Amino acid sequence: MATKAKLHPRNQHSEGYDFVRLVAQTPELEPFTISNPRGQTTVDFQEVGAVRMLNRALLKTHYDIDFWDIPAGYLCPPIPGRIDYIHYLADLLAGSNNQEIPRGRHIKALDIGTGASLVYPLLGQSEYGWHFTGSDIDVGALKSAKQICELNGLKITLRRQNEPENVFRGVVKANDAFHVTLCNPPFHSSMEQANKGTQRKWANLGKGRSKKLNFGGQNAELWCPGGEIKFIARMIEQSMEFADQCLWFTSLVSKKDNLQPLQRILKKARVADFKVVEMAQGQKVSRFIAWTYMKKNQHSLFFSNAEA
Question: How far is it, in rounded angstroms, from Cα 66 to Cα 57?
Fold first, then answer.
């Protein structure tokens, strides 16, 4: 097995994929397995069906998810990177909880744009037992997410975002209190840019040109007018309205160059604290930003109220 460098220490995939174990748990994966030039077992990551079946096997083997599938054309997320975000969020919350990683359903997380795969709630609930609320603007995505919940007997709250211009408005209710929000925002500003990004990615992987979008994806998952900066800026602006209902707001930021303008926006929002958390995943470095309107002495109170 090839070692994947620098994944989070608690990431179950830091040593790569154990295909013997995965195939034993999910025999349907075997026809999709191939050997790479070094003679190691892998799958063709350009093949949508192979990636979907690998995800199904990973979720069953490592996270006790018996049923998982997504409709054709929806984003098929890479599990190791997605669970890394969850682990680093657990560390972030531990910093507000006397350095103890919080576990259990009294810890509430809001996943903005949860998607057809429902990947963050599935992973976070399995690893830490948190209660998740997932929101999405796409009816098809929510239908898929609901089916995953029902067929696995999971209690995950799903909410439709009816307004494309809104992030938290219409989703966060008056009596809600969340310890953390998370988001993997659409990072391109147009479908054309999304296609160019995919071609660049395949070229960097030495795969040549491909007409396929990397891991699939609907328009709302891949791009929005103004791209990542505009989406996160809107998120920051609306977060002010819910400052006392959430301890930490967070979002992935795909482009490092976007951090500086986002920091300026956060300063204008007068947040109490702001962090950039870097996550190194193999050859790729990703990151998320986190901000809170609560002073440090209010953090432990937020946890105490949640347990009451």
Answer: 9
Tokens of 58: 């990973």
Half-sphere exposure of 207 (CA within 13 A, CB side): 17
Mean pLDDT of 72-101: 95
Closest by alpha carbon to 83, among 53, 117, 107, 49? 117
Backbone angles phi, psi at 223, to 5 degrees: -150, 155
Q: What is the pTM of this model?
A: 0.87
Tens digit of each residue's pLDDT (9 = 90 or more) over 39-74 = 999 999 889 999 999 999 999 999 999 999 999 889
Tell me the one-letter amino acid at 14.
S
The answer as to whether 49 is a domain residue is: no
Range of the domain at 293: 73-307
Q: How far is residue 7 from each of residues 57, 119, 278, measured CA to CA in Å?
A: 20, 18, 11
- DSSP of 1-16: -PPPTT--TT-TTTT-
Q: How many CB atoms lie within 10 A of CB 288?
A: 21
**CA-CA distances (angstroms) from residue 297 to 7, 247, 301, 305?**
31, 12, 7, 14
Tokens representing residue 255 in the block: 């482009």
Q: What CATH number does residue 99 fall under?
A: 3.40.50.150
